[in-house]
Amino acid sequence: MTADDVRNDRAINYVEFNVADIARSKRFYGDAFGWTFTDYGPGYCEFSDGHMKGGFDASEPSPAVKGGGGPLVVLYGSDLADVQASVETAGGVIVKPIFEFPGGRRFHFTDPDGYELAVWSAN
């Protein structure tokens, strides 16, 4: 087993979202967070946040559309007010404004497909 295998063993490696409109998802996450994208045909797109990769899959409706949920994906932001403004400008909806918790502060938002995500900061 290599050092990379040991470091990556049992760690989150990829996050995939079922989305209704890949172009809309790319616009939102590109505008709000600066993610980059690689298209793999009309129904799938990989994203990268510069640290981790994931995908947008348009082959099935999102769990939010189907009335389900999913895990809460939490991003980090050094300036929460700035990140919140970027999310709102990109079309996200703030569902829990910035609040304090024992580890710092965070806010929750929904993306255009109805996924709820959060952004936190230690400050």
Architecture blueprint of SSEs:
Blueprint: H1 3-8, E1 14-18, H2 22-33, E2 36-39, E3 44-48, E4 53-57, E5 73-76, H3 80-90, E6 93-101, E7 104-110, E8 116-121
Parallel strand pairs: 1-4, 5-8
Antiparallel strand pairs: 2-3, 3-4, 6-7, 7-8
Helix pairs in contact: 2-3
Gap from first CA to last CA: 38 Å
CATH homology superfamily name: 2,3-Dihydroxybiphenyl 1,2-Dioxygenase, domain 1
Largest sheet: 4 strands, mixed
Under the CATH scheme, which class?
Alpha Beta
CATH topology: 2,3-Dihydroxybiphenyl 1,2-Dioxygenase, domain 1
Shape: globular
Report the C-alpha radius of gyration, rounded.
Answer: 15 Å
Low-pLDDT runs of 5+ residues are: none
- In total, the number of strands is 8
Instruction: Report the mean per-residue pLDDT as an integer.
Output: 87
Strand content: 35-45%
Q: Based on the coordinates given, report the CATH architecture.
A: Roll
How many structural domains can be distinguished in the coordinates?
A: 1
Assign a percent range to the helix content. Answer: 10-25%
SSE order, as H and E? HEHEEEEHEEE
Structural classification = alpha/beta
Strand order of the largest sheet: 1-4-3-2
Task: Spell out the key features of this protein.
alpha/beta, 2,3-Dihydroxybiphenyl 1,2-Dioxygenase, domain 1, four-stranded mixed β-sheet
Describe the 3D structure.
With 123 residues, the chain is of the alpha/beta class. It has a single domain, classed as 2,3-Dihydroxybiphenyl 1,2-Dioxygenase, domain 1 (Roll), CATH 3.10.180. Helices cover 24% and strands 37% of the residues. The chain is built from three helices and eight strands. A four-stranded mixed sheet has the order 1-4-3-2, with helices on one face. It is globular, with a radius of gyration of 15 Å. The mean pLDDT is 87.
